[in-house]
Amino acid sequence: MSEKTTRRYEAEKAERARRTKLTRNAICIVLAVAIIASASIYVNSASAKRAFTAVEMSGGIGTAKLSAAEYEYYYYSAYYSHMEMVNLYGQYGLDIEAPPTSRAQWYTAKYTAEDMTWDAYFRSQAEKSIISVYSKYNEGKQNGFKVSDEKQKENDDAFAKLKQDVLDYKGDDGSTWGSFAKYLRSRYGSGMNESLFRKISEVTNYVSAYSTDKQDGFTYTPEELAAYYTENADTLDYFVYHRFAVAPQDVSDFEDLLSEEEFAEVKAQALKNAEDFTKAINEAILTGAELPEKPEDIPEPTDPDAEPSDTDPSEDPSEEPSEEPSDETSEEPSEEPSEEPSAEPAEEPSEESSEEPSEAEPTDSESPEPSDETTDGEDGDDTDVPEPVTPPDYETIFDGTAFTELTTEQQVARVAAAAFYVNETTYKEYADGAATKNETQGSSISELTRAALVLASKGGSEPLSWGITGTEETPTGYEIVLFLERDDNDYNTADVRFLGFTPQKVDKAYFTDEAGNVDQAGYDDSILHPEKYEEESAAKAKAIADEAFAKWKDAGYTLEALEALTEEYGNDTTIGGDLLEKFARRGSSATDDLLDWIFGSRKAADYKLIETESNGTKMWYIVYYVADNDNERDILSDNALRSADYEAWNTAVVEGAIITQKWGARFVS
Predict the structure, then answer these.
(1) Is 30 or 130 the better-scoring residue by pLDDT?
(2) All residues at 6 or more sequence positions from 255 whose CB lies less than 8 Å from its CB, including other chains
(3) What is the pLDDT of residues 55-81, one digit of tens each?
(4) Are 120 and 113 in contact (CB under 8 A)?
(5) Of 653, 651, 661, whose CA–CA distance to 71 is shortest?
(6) Taking 80 as the threshold, does the pLDDT of residue 483 lie above it?
(7) Please, are residues 70 and 200 in contact by the beta-carbon 8 Å criterion?
(8) How far apart are CA 328 and CA 322, in angstroms?
(9) What SS3 state is found at 99?
(10) Residue 633 burial by Cβ neighbours in a 10 Å radius (0-12, 13-18, 19+)
(11) DSSP helix, strand, coil percent of the chain (3-state; round to 5)
């Protein structure tokens, strides 16, 4: 081969190699792009959320690894739990911070109560729940705990019911979830599916059963129960007492018109006026002297920014000086400041937050269908028309007789009359003091009021005492308290079954107008004819109660027959019906008629049809006494000790456990 040919051959060979390399590189680039695109799709898929470990628990009892999808379950559960508290506090007129409505704002908006972003707050709550759940889960497994077949069936039924409720749901606009999977993704994130949700439910149900078994496993001797009650009697006993509060004048409108120092002085003066008035009222009650005049309102300050008036007051006939005041003062009490607290200060609802997620059965927040809040009241105008109130006969009640010389009934009447004088709008039932009467367990009474009641119950002071509301450092007002009785809960509770009949809706044909014509008005007849409406609706309830009681008589007054009656009449016409175990005399809404019968030396299988009245409404109850149960003192002591021991375990079981972020945490969205 010639040299020229050789050179040409080598050049062609090099060119072929270059082209091959370019083709190979192009193919690699295409493949790399395809791989990257596929990886990107996978990384953002639901499968990736379930595949990789996002967080790991260690350092405590055992370990646990959770995917991003599992982590998001606890994250959103923290959100729903917080929203339940928002709704709960809102019902009591209290404020708790709600997260922004925009999910994106959770990453930037701060939850001021915890001084962190909402996203960080929900993450912290989720991690606390994960530690609590898996620490208990691991301990239960180590101890060989197993869920009973009965409990497992309940859990399976609850899961099936939730799924069916989702599938059956139909909104007012005709919308549906379409599938259970769509519901789960919407509620707990895109990585959630039915199999993973079932797995999480199995874990949380196991933890719930194990926690219950742990709490039920604590035992106490009679001596331990008695010793605990003796030590904590002041908070476990019930106190019966009359109380009314004296509020200082509301000066909140002054705040924008005064400097900070001036406003503080005005608040202090208003509080001092209330204190002086309370002292004077208390003295009048003790001595029977004439009631003191009410403090005058602090005059509202002039707004310095207000426009000056062009009118000369001296030229306005309405500004002429009034006649000299008469020496005779009116006996009518003057208006009381509008901001008067209720007879019993509202307690903030206790925040009973379970650290485990709820079982598969939906809570109110998990329910796919919004609840329809309905009332049993009649349709129509809800406006309460105030009944005319006859003031107490102050001259007779405050006749100069010393308080200690009065009977208990007279003491109550005097305290109630003073309460009526302080605020007649609130205390209408002054005659027997019903509006100011309290029957409360010591633990639910403010510390200052409880101290006064405890002292009075031990004979260390007069039954009547006055003090501050709020705290000694930050008083909010004053109160007068009359101690009547202390109940040490030393009695046997009862197993009892109620079946109650309340006033029923009646036909409009019962009602006629003043001319005697049947009233066909399209609104509530109870407003047009309240007395007749109450009479007829109560008569209808009594007829139903008599009918039910007669049927029960024919069946032999047995417990089984009473259960059948409950099923027959249903919730539309009855209240109660369920067996109440360990029913206590104090702390229930049962009327005195019912309580007197139940705790009046009953024996098993005693029964009665009782007519009673609550807040002016007549009701009829079939009551069946099943049996005596445990002593209430022992029950209260046992509950308190058991709760304390459970909380101690609840704290110890998570000790040392920490959460570590893993590579899969990047899939949490």
Answers:
(1) 130
(2) 263
(3) 999 999 999 999 999 999 999 999 999
(4) no
(5) 661
(6) yes
(7) yes
(8) 16
(9) coil
(10) buried
(11) 50, 15, 35
For residue 329, CA distances in Å to 326, 332, 427, 448, 575 come to 7, 9, 24, 37, 53
d(CA 499, CA 579): 10
Dist CA 394 CA 396 (whole Å): 5
The whole-chain average pLDDT of the chain stands at 82
Token couple for 534: 């109450």
pTM to 2 decimals?
A: 0.72
- Higher-confidence residue of 355 and 551: namely 551
Opening angle at CA 602, ends 593 and 564, nearest 5: 80
Token digits of residue 123:
């993450």
Measure the CA–CA gap between 130 and 110, rounded to whole angstroms. 23
**Confidence check: pLDDT of 346 > 60:** no
Q: How open is the CA angle 661-663-664, to the nearest 5 degrees?
A: 90
Look at residue 562 and tell me whether its pLDDT is greater than 80: yes
In whole angstroms, give the CA distance from residue 372 to residue 378.
17
DSSP one-letter string for 68-90: HHHHHHHHHHHHHHHHHHHHHHH
Q: What is the 3-state secondary structure (H, E, C) of 301-355?
A: CCCCCCCCCCCCHHHCHHHCCCCCCCCCCCCCCCCCCCCCCCCCCCCCCCCCCCC
State the pLDDT confidence band at 653, using cuts at 50, 70 and 90. Answer: very high
HSE of 328, CA atoms in CB hemisphere, 13 A = 2
226: its two tokens: 């008695």
